[in-house]
Write a sequence for this structure.
């Protein structure tokens, strides 16, 4: 067994009990001159038994090195006997037997460690410099040690003697107030510098920190880098990390370089410096001049977390919470968050509060959530302050208190939390917990919006659009809506779309409105989905599409949009109608192919029919278009080369009273008024001579003439009064009521311009015959034949 490094091996005076040299000490010294012989052992045992402290100590040493059974216990007993008499070397020997790295003996005493420290302190108090230096080396770097009450005295004593280690630890004591020392940054820097100038790497790193932060000395980045470099060369892991951090941030005179930063982080990480391991993990996680590798990042986080590095514990906890490179394990995340939280890490406290709040990986406990959130908030973590304010607003885990909510929102807002600023603005707008003040609301909302918070930008846009707290400005509203919309906020996208659709603050642009409305609808905003359905129905900014219209209306209805739910049946019907129209056009196309192949004059006949049938088709079921076109086509005859008029081959001319036949022209068109023997007293009207069989239309004197606000044909359009009400001077268009055989009167109008030669004649007829007592005829037949015949007799534009 190796011998003790410290302590006397011969009989020098080392205890208060041996202050007087007597014959026993002299004889003991003489016996040891020949070495630790059996005679020396006998003499030492004799004098130890008589109570001589030096003999007790030497006997303990002899027993410790002899190695026979029972010697260890006997040595412990003699060391304690000498120590109890104040023998410094014996006290030191007892400490080494229990705590030192040279000799460890298990004496079966649970209090051995505490007692051994007491023995070493006793030795140091007796003036043994080696004992006090051992205590400094082992405990001087700790924040406190109640078992060593005189540590500050030991540090001061050895620092004055020039011990670089004591200077470093005494600097720590003045820097942080350890061991009851008065906190003094300048004194701490002075001691750090004394130690650093002797080449101590950790002291050099501390000097660098003082220069970097301006602690006890004027802040100087270049001096900080100098001392970090000196300490890093000597192997200080902390200095290597700090030098890496300096490269990361481009601290003068260094240029920013993540490559160099990672090189120093790795050096320190391989020396098991926890913060360097965490920083290296961040570089792998974020791909900072290193390959993006989540698994490797987690590995470094884990190594740092095992050493108690709180930021690494939080980072690794987040990986387990979200499945970032590891299998999701909420209990493991809670364990890591709590470890960081208990160490005082504010982010860890906030994260564990959220886990308790949501019952994630731990039983839901709102009281615990509030407790941890408050701890983080009291440390100044803005996110925690904001969440704590939210808890007070909503009474989550605490009694509702708008006043407390305002206090915490204000604290977070003043730190620059955009969410807190926006929420604080809402409190000012509502006058909740504070006097209503729109100017303050605008101030805080603008601060949040300028930081890029989409909700705040959207809310600020609304305030400008409605002139709430600010002068109304469509341009400002458009600006902030766009800022929020480009960040993907659905409500902002929809409101931005409405501004383009309605031309508010910007030129009307249906296509741009459609684009932003689509963006919002695809995010699930029901109002945008309903509006998008309307745009597809009406072809606003996009080609009409019944399918897309129905899809978006259904999406809005499924989310509970009341209007969409109410209109959904109409959208379903519209879709059916559009499918029917598509099928009808397909049938017309097939018919066209067949007729074109069979009739060389098809294109000429088609050019005559299309303007006549187009408005008719709008009033006719699509399923009947093809049949109507084919029947009308069969009745068309092209004019002969000599200009002689032809008649449809399929009809026989009705008998018309020649006396009552009149013609008048309008441009190139000729209108015929006639009477039929089968309809005495009726005045027929037609463009075809003779009229189509079973297609007669008669002037309907039971209805007044109407003033038409625009050119129209077919089913009655908007009208204003009658001729007598409006007066002749302003009349320029007439709507002439007509009725078909078997159709109730008043369903159709014939447009007549005031330039028609018979314009005055028609008015004269109405003055003499209106009102008429003729009975209304039966309900109109919905068949295509009547409408088609009507269209033949009155083409579009007349």
């Amino acid at each position: 067994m190796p011998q003790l490094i410290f302590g006397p091996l011969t009989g020098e005076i080392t205890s208060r009990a041996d202050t007087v040299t007597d014959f026993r000490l002299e004889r003991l010294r003489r016996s040891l001159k020949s070495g630790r012989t059996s005679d020396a052992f006998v003499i030492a045992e004799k004098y130890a038994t008589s109570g001589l402290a030096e003999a007790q100590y030497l006997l303990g040493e002899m027993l410790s090195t002899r190695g026979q059974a029972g010697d260890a216990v006997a040595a412990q007993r003699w060391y304690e006997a000498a120590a109890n008499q104040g023998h410094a070397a014996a006290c030191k020997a007892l400490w080494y037997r229990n705590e030192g790295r040279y000799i460890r003996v298990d004496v079966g005493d649970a209090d051995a460690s505490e007692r051994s420290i007491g023995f070493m302190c006793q030795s140091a108090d007796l003036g043994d410099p080696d004992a006090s230096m051992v205590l400094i080396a082992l405990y001087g770097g700790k924040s406190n040690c109640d078992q060593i009450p005189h540590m500050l005295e030991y540090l001061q004593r050895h620092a004055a003697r020039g011990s670089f280690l004591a200077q470093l630890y005494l600097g720590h004591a003045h820097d942080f107030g350890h061991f009851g020392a008065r906190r003094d940054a300048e004194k701490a820097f002075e001691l750090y510098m004394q130690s650093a100038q002797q080449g101590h790497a950790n002291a050099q790193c501390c000097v660098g920190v003082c220069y970097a932060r301006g602690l006890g000395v004027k802040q100087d980045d270049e001096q900080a880098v100098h001392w970090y470099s000196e300490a890093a060369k000597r192997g200080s892991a902390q200095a290597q990390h700090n030098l890496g951090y300096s490269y990361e941030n481009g601290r003068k005179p260094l240029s920013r370089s993540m490559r160099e930063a990672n090189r120093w982080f790795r050096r320190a990480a391989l020396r098991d410096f926890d913060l360097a391991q965490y920083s290296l993990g961040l570089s792998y996680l974020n791909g900072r001049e290193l390959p993006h590798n989540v698994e490797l990042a987690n590995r470094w986080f884990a190594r740092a977390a095992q050493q108690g590095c709180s930021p690494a514990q939080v980072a690794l906890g987040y990986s387990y919470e979200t499945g970032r490179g590891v299998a999701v394990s909420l209990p493991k995340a809670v364990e890591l968050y709590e470890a960081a939280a208990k160490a005082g890490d504010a982010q860890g406290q906030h994260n564990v509060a959220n886990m308790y709040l949501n019952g994630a990986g731990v039983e839901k406990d709102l009281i615990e959530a509030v407790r941890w959130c408050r701890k983080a908030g009291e440390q100044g973590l803005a996110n925690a302050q904001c969440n704590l304010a939210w808890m007070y607003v909503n009474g989550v885990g605490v009694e509702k208190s708008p006043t407390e909510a305002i206090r915490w929102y204000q604290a977070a807002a003043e730190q620059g939390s955009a969410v807190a600023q926006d929420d604080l603005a809402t409190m000012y707008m509502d006058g909740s917990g504070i006097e209503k003040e729109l100017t303050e609301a605008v101030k805080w909302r603008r601060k949040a919006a300028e930081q890029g918070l989409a909700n705040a930008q959207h809310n600020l846009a609304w305030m400008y659009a409605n002139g709430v707290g600010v002068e109304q400005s469509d341009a400002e509203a458009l600006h902030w809506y766009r800022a929020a919309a480009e960040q993907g906020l659905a409500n902002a996208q929809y409101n931005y779309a409405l501004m383009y659709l309605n031309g508010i603050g910007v030129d009307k642009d249906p296509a741009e409105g459609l684009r932003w409305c689509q963006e919002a609808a695809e995010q699930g905003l029901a109002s945008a989905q309903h509006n998008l359905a309307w745009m597809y129905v009406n072809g606003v900014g996009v080609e009409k599409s019944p399918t897309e219209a129905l899809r978006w209306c259904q999406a809005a209805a499924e989310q509970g949009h009341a209007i969409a739910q109410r209109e959904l049946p109409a959208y379903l019907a519209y879709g059916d109608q559009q499918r029917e129209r598509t099928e009808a056009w397909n049938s017309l196309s097939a018919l066209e192919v067949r007729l074109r192949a069979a009739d060389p004059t098809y294109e000429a006949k088609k050019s005559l029919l299309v303007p006549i049938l187009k408005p008719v088709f709008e009033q006719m079921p699509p399923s009947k278009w093809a049949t109507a076109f084919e029947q009308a086509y069969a009745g068309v005859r092209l004019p002969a080369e000599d200009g002689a008029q032809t008649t449809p081959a399929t009809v026989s001319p009705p008998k018309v009273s020649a006396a009552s036949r009149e013609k008048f022209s309008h441009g190139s068109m000729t209108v015929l008024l006639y009477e039929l023997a089968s309809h005495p007293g009726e005045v027929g009207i037609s463009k075809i001579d003779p009229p189509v069989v079973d297609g007669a239309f008669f002037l309907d004197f039971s209805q007044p003439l109407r003033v038409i606000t625009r050119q129209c044909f077919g089913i009655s359009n908007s009208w204003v009064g009658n001729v007598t009400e409006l007066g002749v001077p302003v009349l320029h268009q007439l709507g002439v009521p007509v009725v078909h055989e078997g159709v109730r009167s008043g369903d159709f109008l014939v447009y007549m311009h005031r330039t028609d030669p018979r314009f005055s004649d028609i008015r004269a007829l109405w003055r003499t015959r209106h009102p008429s007592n003729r009975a209304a005829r039966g309900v109109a037949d919905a068949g295509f034949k009547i409408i088609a015949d009507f269209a033949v007799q009155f083409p579009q534009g007349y």
